[in-house]
Amino acid sequence: MTETATATVGPRDLAADDHRYLWHPFTQAEEWNSHDPLIVERAEGFHLVDTDGRRYLDGVSSIWCNVHGHGHPRITAAMKEQLDRVSHSTMLGLSHVPAIELARRLVEITPEALTRVFYSDSGSTAVEVALRTAFQYWRQRGQQQRNRFVTLAEAYHGDTMGSVSLGFSEPFHRGYGAITFEVFKFNPPWMCEPINEGSGEQAVVAGIETPALEAAGAASLAQLEKLLAEKGESIAAVVIEPLVQGAAGIWPQPPSFVRGVRELCDRYGTLMVCDEVATGFGRTGSMFAVEQAGVCPDIMCLAKGLTAGYLPLAVTLATEQVFDAFRGRYSDYKALFHGHTYGGNPLGCATALANLDVFDEENTVETGAERGRLMGELLAEHIAPLAHTAALRRVGTMAAFEILKDPDSGLRFATDERRAYRAVLEARKRGVIIRPLGDTMVLMPPPALPEQLMHELVTATAESVAAATAG
Ligand SMILES: Cc1ncc(COP(=O)(O)O)c(C=O)c1O
Q1: pLDDT for 351-383, tens place per residue?
Q2: Could you check whether the bond before residue 111 is cis, i.e. omega within 30 degrees of 0?
Q3: Which of 302, 304, 442 to mutate to test the pocket of ligand 1 (most atoms within 8 A of CB)?
Q4: 452 has pLDDT over 50
Q5: Considering the entire predicted model, what is its pTM?
Q6: What are phi and psi of 172, to 5 degrees?
Q7: Which atom of ligand 1 is nearest to the CA of 163?
Q8: Is 206:197 a contact under the CB 8 Å cutoff?
Q9: Which atom of ligand 1 has the smallest separation from the CA of 155?
Q10: Radius of gyration of the chain (CA)
Q11: Ligand 1 pocket residues where CB is under 6 Å
Q12: Cα-to-centroid distance, 318 and ligand 1 (Å)
């Protein structure tokens, strides 16, 4: 070992080294380097602990993936056990025990027609696999012309270039046109009338069942139908985040919208892909969002909560009908020529199996649904009355609201005022970690967050937003 490696590194040195060596995702370095970073050293249940020993409630589930809190004994024990067996072995040309067991469990708990599990290692790769599967499916079914995709405006499906193409968003991806492919887009319910007419804020506050949201869902479906009527023969798949669009700003859809997309895909003979990377594993009040619509997609993507937020692992599930199109003689070259080194990693699979056990043993889905209702009451009590908040919305334990200069006219604060970011720094002073999307404040605690901590999260957020928007 070198001298540097054995020396005790103090927090100040870590901060300097962070600024010197690291390049953080989705982060402007000029802003990042202007203050000391919060450096996480360990976690205790629903709290992260920094190098100075300060504890913070994890209000965004470590980027939307933690489910039962950190260091759950059942999960860490399973990880340690698997470590003693084998920590990595490939899915290319070999199989392994936890990959097989997990595939069976996932097929059992996802909608019935999904029967095949393809492993990868992130939400982006799960979507990339879905994209290739849908494209190749039609080629191998003799319909090469079905090579285009339909997605929701403002969708986010990940950061690999295929998933960026599907989820192209102007603020993030301007300038990438030359290396992405074009998709056909339609407006999601939250961008359709009557939601975007000014009555939307009220409609969304009331929850996902409101007549306004239903009507907006119907308007959105009308757009999809028009698109499919015009371009239907060229469409390989319609790709949606079902029930809630996450990175667009936690915007809900009524279940009838998800059902409508399924019906239109059937009517126009195209595939339906559901990206449940964010919505899966109890976050919307059911295990999977599609359950609330009674819908089975042809292809479904899962990641994040699959391992309860402990390790990178992802799956793309497909129906037998889709899988069958990939069968043939070797020389037909019909196999899915795709695979990632760590796809289906055994440690990840063992972790996911333990995660599913905890779901069963602790009734996490029911707890999450109940915690979501409590969250809704607390948001209405503490966030809605604030002078600079608007458009409060929530599905399960996924919630967001806008921070606006003037909620009545919809006027935003100047971007560089960084009001939501100021609220993040205020929240840290109160021992809470939150992370916004621009001036949209997102709260996404683990579904299993205890009641008392839900109170703390919402009240600390309300105080922080009030402080950050004063003056
Ligand atoms: C709906 C959705 N799809 C895909 C992704 C990409 O997942 P990952 O960051 O694991 O690549 C995300 C990430 O937030 C997501 O919300």
Answers
A1: 999 999 999 999 999 999 999 999 999 999 999
A2: no
A3: 304
A4: yes
A5: 0.95
A6: -80, -40
A7: 4
A8: no
A9: 1
A10: 22
A11: 122-124, 127, 156-158, 241, 246-247, 275, 277-278, 303
A12: 19
Q: What is the Cα–Cα distance from 344 to 302, expressed in whole angstroms?
A: 13
The residue whose CA has the least distance to atom 9 of ligand 1 is: 123
Mean pLDDT, residues 296-314 taken together = 98
Sheet holding 47-50, edge to edge: 40-44, 47-50, 55-58, 432-433
* Protein residue with its CA nearest to atom 7 in ligand 1: 123
User: Alpha-carbon distance 267 to 269, whole Å?
Assistant: 6
Query: 273 C-alpha to center of ligand 1: Å?
Result: 14
Place of tokens 């440690």: 347
Q: Over pLDDT 70: what percentage of the chain?
A: 94
Which residue ranges form the domains of the chain, and what is each CATH number? 38-67+364-469 (3.90.1150.10), 75-362 (3.40.640.10)
Cβ atoms of 46 and 69 closer than 8 Å: yes
> Which residue lies with its CA nearest to atom 3 of ligand 1?
157
Ligand 1 mean position, distance from CA 277 (Å): 6
Provide the 10 A C-beta neighbour count for residue 20.
8
Predicted confidence at residue 169, as pLDDT, reads 80
Whole-number Cα distances in Å, 275 to 74, 77, 288, 316: 28, 30, 10, 9
pLDDT in tens, 326-348: 999 999 999 999 999 999 999 99
Tell which wins on pLDDT, 205 or 153.
153
Q: Measured in angstroms, how far is the CA atom of residue 123 from the centroid of ligand 1?
A: 4
For atom 16 of ligand 1, which residue has the closest CA? 278
- According to DSSP, the residues that pair with 272 across neighbouring strands are 238
Interval 18-74: pLDDT, tens: 999 999 999 999 989 998 999 999 999 999 999 999 999 999 999 999 999 999 999
Q: How far is the CA of 432 from the centre of ligand 1 (A)?
A: 23
Is the Cβ–Cβ distance between 158 and 123 less than 8 Å? yes
Count other C-beta atoms under 10 Å from residue 307's C-beta: 28
How far apart are the CA of 278 and the centre of ligand 1, in A? 6
